[in-house]
TrEMBL record:
Gene: ADK2
CDD domains named in the record: ADK (cd01428)
Segments for region (NMPbind): 37-66
Species: Cryoendolithus antarcticus
Subcellular location: Mitochondrion matrix
Protein name: GTP:AMP phosphotransferase, mitochondrial
Family membership: Belongs to the adenylate kinase family. AK3 subfamily.
Superkingdom as given in the UniProt entry: Eukaryota
Amino acid sequence: MKLRKAARVILIGAPGVGKGTQSARMLERYKELSSISSGDLLRDNVRNRTPLGIQAEHLMKTGALVPDSMILRLIQNTLLTRGWLTQPGGPKPLTLNFASPYGIQDTLIEHDNFFSNRLPPRKIADEFEYSDSPSASFILDGFPRTASQADKLDELIPINLVVNISTPTEIILDRICNRYIHQPSGRTYNLTFNKPKVEGKDDITGEPLTQREDDKPEVWKERLHRFEESSRSLLEHYDKMGILWTVTGNSSDEISPRLFKEFEKRFGRAGT
Ligand SMILES: *[C@@H]1O[C@H](CO)[C@@H](O)[C@H](O)[C@H]1NC(C)=O
Ligand SMILES: *[C@@H]1O[C@H](CO)[C@@H](O)[C@H](O)[C@H]1NC(C)=O
Ligand SMILES: *[C@@H]1O[C@H](CO)[C@@H](O)[C@H](O)[C@H]1NC(C)=O
C-alpha cells in the first residue's frame, strides 16, 4: 500500500496493549513509513560522539534527565539530515555526504552549531519547511510524553495522526497476569492455555505455584493507573487539535486491521 501524502504518526498505548507490535506491523506494511525513536537517536548520538551526544551522556552520568530541548534538537537533526525539514531561504543545511570522512556526524555537528549559535529557539519553526512527500512519513516513538513536550514538537513539525490504542483493563490483566510458576523446577503454567490440573498446585510435585512480582495483578493495576494519569493531558492535547483517533480491541490481531483501515482512509493512495 502506497501513501498519497506524508503521515506523521504517534501511537499512544498503555503497557500491555501491544503498541510495539502495532508499530512493527505498520512499518512492515507501509514501506514509506519509518521509525524515529528518541531513545535510538540518543543512543546513536552518544555512540557517535556528536556534541549533543556528549552533552546528553554527561547529563545522564550525573543522574540528570536529558532536557526536552535536547531531545527536540535530536529529532530536528534527524529530520534535517533526511531532508524532511528544509530551510527555504537561508544557508542550506549540509546534505548527507558519504564521501566526507566525517559522514553523518559531520552533518549533525553543522546543524547543532548552527542552531545553538544563530537561531533564537522559538523561531525555529518559521525557519523551516517540512516535506509532505509520502517518503517523509514516520512513526515517532518515545517523545512526546507530556502536553508541554507536544507543544514544543508542534512548533517543529505538525504530527497529523495520534492513535489512542485502547484495550479494556480486565483484558490486559487477564492476558498478562495468568502466568504461574513452580519455583523449584521452573515449570510455568498459563491459566488460559496451560492450566495446572489442580488449581494453584504443580502437576508433578503438588507443591504450590507462585507468581512473579511482575505478573501480579496489583502491580499491573498500579502500572496501568499511572499510565492513565500521565497520558491524559497528552491525549487531550491531540484531541483538541482534532488529530486523535481511538482504536479499541481485545488483542493486537483485533486492533491491527482497524488501524490499517483508518490509516489507509487518511493516507493511502487508492488502488495501491
Ligand atoms: C483514549 O482511550 C481511553 C481508553 O483506553 C479512553 O478512556 C480515553 O477517553 C481516550 N482518550 C481520548 C482523549 O479520547
Ligand atoms: C498464555 O498463552 C497464550 C497462548 O500461547 C499467550 O498468548 C499468552 O501470552 C500467554 N500468557 C502468558 C502470561 O504467558
Ligand atoms: C472483548 O472482551 C470483552 C470483555 O471480555 C467481551 O465482552 C467482548 O466480546 C470481546 N470482544 C471480542 C471481539 O472478542
